[in-house]
């Protein structure tokens, strides 16, 4: 007789579930079925009875004795049939259907292929990163080499200029000595018109007034040429007008034509200090009874005292911008004190935990954010300029662990923040990411939330800003902050 084509097994032969827990060995437990009957409603019990497991309930009602081992055997060797109310179990040594085993094997192979693909991708990214770092390193070495060569060339030119200067001075001295010797020889010759021979000796140990002026003019000319060669292509060196005496002072001719005290490039840093202003400053300092003590011996005060000296300079910049806006690089800038970064970092947790509306708005911003956005604080030098409309750049201070300050430059049009740090090694990359996260997230949100019209809101987005901390061209503090 030919073997029957039976359905596939639910469990692969040899992989049947092990009965970790089991009901009573025999069906003599009278409480089991009564407990099941009491726990279910009538319709639930009937539904269970009509299912594949219902056959065991019917066995109980028919007083058909059976053991739990028989039930376990029937469940483990049942076949996957489409009939809802029948339970088929395979008894015998028919060939095993390994569909599930093959499916499991295919899944394992797919998982291995994905893992291999992931490893290849990571290896490729690592190679690209190493190649990029190598290229940046080579570029940096090339730039350093070019800078070194340029510096050596400038020093060589300065040295040659100085040698030329000294060589010409030496030649002048030799010519002067030769001239003096010739004059002395000429004076020793006898005069034929004189009745008696006489000797005229000219004393050339001391220079005349004309000789001194000529030497000083030559010295200054050679000094200027030597200094020009040393400076090289310095950005600070510039050509002065005939009426200017210093690069830090304005054109005096223009001041005479346009008598405006606000015109100019600011104060002269080389000017002597004003004694009256110095006295007023020292009188204010002496009001502190501990002003003569060293910093480590001064009494501990509140943290707000630690921020006063930085906020004082920010207020100086604010007042200078209000009184002389032409002294700054642009009129579309503003300065913020330490409260901006301090408050926004402290309140960032509440901002993140607040639930926005369906448009992404309605989050909880720190107190006073709208006043900063509108430029109405501080009241003593309010600008009344709105961020994004009248203000493009924001300069602020950020304190790190009450022992280090960094400066930030927020560019609203570029959606970018530049961090200036005088001790780069003091703050790690992870710590800086944590410091900058509130500012990168809440500044764009404030611009969108406070926009007065839909047209202004479209210009911005809730996407966080980017930031960088440049190290080239930023002076580093060696002795401490």
Structure description:
- The protein contains 14 helices and five strands.
- It has 481 residues and is mainly alpha-helical.
- The chain has a five-stranded mixed beta sheet with strand order 1-2-3-4-5.
- Helix 5 packs antiparallel against helix 6.
- 7% of the residues are buried.
- About 8% of the residues have low confidence.
Structural class: mainly alpha
In the predicted model, the low-confidence regions spanning at least 5 consecutive residues are 93-97, 191-204, 233-237, 252-265
Percent of residues in helices: 40-55%
* Range of strand content: 5-15%
- Count of extended strands: 5
The description of the largest β-sheet is: 5 strands, mixed
Mean pLDDT: 77
Judging from the principal axes of the Cα atoms, what is the shape?
elongated
Which series of helices and strands comes N to C? HHHHHHHHHEHHHEEEHHE
Determine the N-to-C terminus distance: 97 Å
* Order of the strands making up the biggest sheet: 1-2-3-4-5
Task: Report Rg.
Answer: 46 Å
Helices, by number, come to 14
